[in-house]
Design brief:
- By secondary structure, this protein is of the alpha+beta class.
- The protein is 28% helix and 19% strand.
- The protein has 7 helices and 10 strands.
- A 4-stranded antiparallel beta sheet has the order 1-2-8-3, with helices on both faces. It has a two-stranded antiparallel ribbon with strand order 4-5.
- Strand 6 and strand 7 form a beta hairpin.
- The longest helix is centred in the middle third of the chain and has 26 residues.
- It is globular, with a radius of gyration of 18 Å.
């Protein structure tokens, strides 16, 4: 058997900056088909972890650095989740990695979804809270964090939930170029169509918009306070 502290030590050793654990009962509101037990029927705990995302990318005039960092950190998170699952099998505990950035179409809600929502898993595990812009905000790194998750068959001690960080100032709502935040649920396709795609000038696929992340007064967190907004 292994405990909460040991789980975190393993993930911190693999390079995680944040780690938290959620009990399975914190996912009662998950959409049909996207509950942890819909993926792993024997799941008892969900382990969420995060890595800081370089904040200098927000200040670049070119979209390339932000895009390339995002494309590089995704396989890093997946590799960490895989390595963790293999390590846990040494303790005779089965775990399943959740892809960091892979979506499938949910016909019931007409939305693209990860098989388990990374940001909701992180919120349930006490890493932070979801803001008005639909991004996770953590006390340490604001929204400049990338997320990974693992489903675990062992029941582990869960972490305390964070108090809500976002104050609903609506700065993100007002700055969105395509009004994707007018309603409480993000207009996903409008956001994606505008923010992601081929830049005809440089003839490269880029992420051309992260205004909601830029404008958020909580986007940096305490660990990034050396940067003046």
């Amino acid at each position: 058997m292994i405990d909460n502290k040991q789980v975190k030590e393993i993930l911190f050793g693999l390079g995680a900056d944040l780690c938290g654990i959620a009990s399975i009962d914190r996912f009662n509101d998950a959409p049909k088909g996207y509950h942890p037990t819909d993926v792993l029927p024997t799941c008892k705990s969900v382990i969420s972890f995060g890595c800081r995302f370089p904040i200098g990318t927000l200040s670049c005039n070119s979209p390339v650095p932000y895009t390339r960092v995002r494309n590089s950190i995704t396989p890093k998170m997946d590799a960490m989740a895989l390595a963790f699952c293999i390590e846990m099998e040494k303790y005779q505990i089965a775990c399943v990695p959740i892809p960091t950035n892979e979506s499938q179409w949910d016909e019931n809600t007409k939305r693209w979804r990860s098989i388990i929502s990374q940001k909701h898993a992180a919120q349930a595990a006490g890493l932070g809270t979801i803001g008005r812009h639909s991004l996770l905000i953590t006390p340490e790194f604001g929204s400049m964090v990338w997320l990974g998750a693992v489903l675990c068959e062992q029941e582990l001690e869960c972490d305390e939930l964070k108090d809500n960080i976002c104050n609903n100032c609506d700065a993100c709502v007002n700055i969105c170029p395509v009004n994707a935040l007018e309603h409480l649920e993000l207009e996903q396709q409008a956001c994606w169509d505008y923010a992601f795609g081929d830049d005809k000038t440089i003839q490269s696929w880029v992420i051309s918009c992260h205004k909601c992340r830029d404008i958020c007064p909580y986007n940096l967190g305490t660990e990034n306070s050396f940067i003046k907004k």
